[in-house]
Amino acid sequence: MKRLTWPSWMPIDPYILALIATVGVAALLPARGGAADVASGASTAAVAFLFFLYGARLSTREALDGLRHWRLHVAVLACTFVLFPLLGLAARGLVPVLMPQNLYAGLLFLTLVPSTIQSSIAFTSIARGNVPAAICAGSFSSLAGIVLTPLLAAALLGGTGGGFSADSLVKIVLQLLVPFMAGQLLRRWVGGFLTRHKKVLGYVDRGAILLVVYTAFSEGMVQGVWHQVSAVRLAGLLVVEAVLLAVMLAVTWYGAKALGFDRADRIAIQFAGSKKSLASGLPMATVLFGAHASLAVLPLMLFHQMQLMVCAVIAKRRSHDPEEPQEAALSPAPEAPAARTRTAAGTGPRSR
């Protein structure tokens, strides 16, 4: 696994800059009339293609192998789909003092989406954690989110302006779950192609999400939803999200320690259990919220950048942590005889 290096001064993720630029274009040149219909159709196709790629990339064999570490995966899933939503429900008491109802709906939706995969793996690798566990945990979370996120949204967001109905759930199945399963079924034939063209398809992924963002924010501009949010309300949202992230980072780290996980597993749990996926959340929001999707995805976009910045700092500090005594005791067995031989010869064991 090639390790990622992050600059010490922590710039904004270039992809976030692209998202901000897309929002700006949507504000200045929103799609209207026939152009809006074309953009909506292209966005629908892009979302289906995204989830087809997600399904085709997920290795069923790796997922099944990861089941052996089931306690770790249960901990991550519990943080993602139980603790996060509970904190989101608790934030309802901040309405309307700190945030309006429409922003709260987006905040609650943020707590329902699955965890990330790529950034969780990268941060776990930087911090010298259990990278295979992070890979499986992120994959399990994304797979579970295709089913759990819409169900949780239907149950918890019904009265917050989400506009959920049986039709919404049917759209989720047809637009997200069916393409995902098709990708899984065709992985045997397209998996090699996807691996060989991983870099190019990564740009396709991001381009599709930018199209989804443009369509959602264009529709929001046409509907006039942005006039409902002030700068003060946005500042309040940032404060709430900062507290939410801090609580989840603390719970995943110290909670994993209380459950008896070692340092490497705790790192994987912290980074996989405290983060939310922009790539999965944005397409789901466009299906579930319709014309209100622009406000619904705003909290997720802000939280995404915040979690990248904070987790990058944490990962860098964790990389300098000394090894715990338990980790030293778990050194590979083949080295032990050689170490004893050196000791007997008077050279002493190799320092760690």
Tell me what the structure shows.
There is one protein chain. By secondary structure, this protein is mostly helical. The protein contains 15 helices and no strands. The protein is globular, with a radius of gyration of 22 Å.
Q: Could you say which overall geometry the principal axes of the C-alpha atoms support? A: globular
Task: Quote the beta fraction.
Answer: under 5%
Mean of residue pLDDT values:
79
How many individual β-strands?
0
- The run of helices and strands is HHHHHHHHHHHHHHH
From the alpha carbons, calculate the radius of gyration and give it in angstroms: 22 Å
Report helical residue fraction. over 70%
pLDDT below 50 for ≥5 consecutive residues: which ranges? 1-10, 326-352
Decide which structural class fits the backbone: mainly alpha
Q: How far apart, in Å, are the first and last alpha carbons?
A: 22 Å
Number of helices: 15
What composes the largest sheet? none
Keywords:
74% helix, 352 residues, disordered N terminus, mainly alpha
What's the structural blueprint in terms of helices and strands?
Layout lengths: L13 H15 L4 H25 L2 H7 L3 H21 L10 H10 L7 H9 L4 H26 L9 H31 L1 H26 L7 H28 L4 H11 L4 H12 L3 H26 L6 H5 L5 H10 L8
